[in-house]
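dumping this here so i dont lose it
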């Protein structure tokens, strides 16, 4: 009587990345867990940024820990931009490699009278296309144009191509929040594991360095 051995446990370890950035302008620590969404702890000096990061992690279904302080008495620009950079770097570190993932995805997010489309390609090439315009007033006590700097930093840190198109909007708050949520849903799809550890590329390689 032959016995059949049970297959070995094929569960892969969680993809976790953590990055710290300390400069004369900002002090930021971010940890990302792409495979366990149970922990979301976000604290920055900007409440509206906290809200956006929480929405990103919630809709992206990943764990996120953020502590971020900066010279917001001078201008929130440094903190917003650097947080984007560190978040992108932490996700890139969590991936470990661009092998074995879906790589690209897009999502169009409706939020009341606003519709935002986000498409990304985790390909090792940094590129941001940003088609959103804002009014001449603040959102959450912030200039909404600063969020372009967040996404530019995110793209640079994650070595990713990102296109953001606001098709129409009813107000700037909804446009910003829909952008974060659309990115979350696209990112959630793009980082999904394939059943192979190969690059999803006809070239057989992606620009990881």
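and the seq i came up w/
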């Amino acid at each position: 009587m032959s016995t059949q051995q049970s297959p070995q446990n094929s569960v892969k370890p969680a993809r976790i990345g953590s990055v710290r950035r300390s400069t004369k302008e900002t002090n930021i620590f971010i940890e990302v867990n792409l495979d366990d969404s149970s922990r979301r702890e976000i604290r920055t000096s900007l409440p509206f940024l906290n809200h956006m990061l929480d929405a990103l992690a919630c809709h992206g279904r990943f764990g996120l820990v953020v502590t971020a302080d900066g010279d917001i008495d001078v201008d929130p620009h440094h903190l917003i931009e650097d947080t984007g950079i560190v978040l992108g770097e932490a996700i890139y570190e969590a991936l470990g490699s661009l092998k074995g993932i879906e790589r690209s995805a897009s999502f169009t997010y409706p939020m009341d009278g606003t519709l935002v489309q986000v498409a990304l390609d985790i390909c090792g090439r940094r590129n941001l296309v940003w088609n959103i315009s804002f009014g001449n007033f603040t959102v959450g006590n912030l200039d909404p144009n600063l969020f372009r700097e967040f996404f530019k930093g995110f793209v640079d840190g994650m070595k990713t191509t990102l296109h953001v198109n606001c098709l129409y909007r009813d107000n700037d708050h909804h446009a910003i929040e829909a952008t974060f949520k659309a990115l979350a849903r696209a990112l959630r799809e793009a980082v999904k594991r394939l059943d192979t550890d190969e690059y999803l590329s006809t070239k057989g390689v992606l620009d990881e360095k």
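The radius of gyration is 18 Å.
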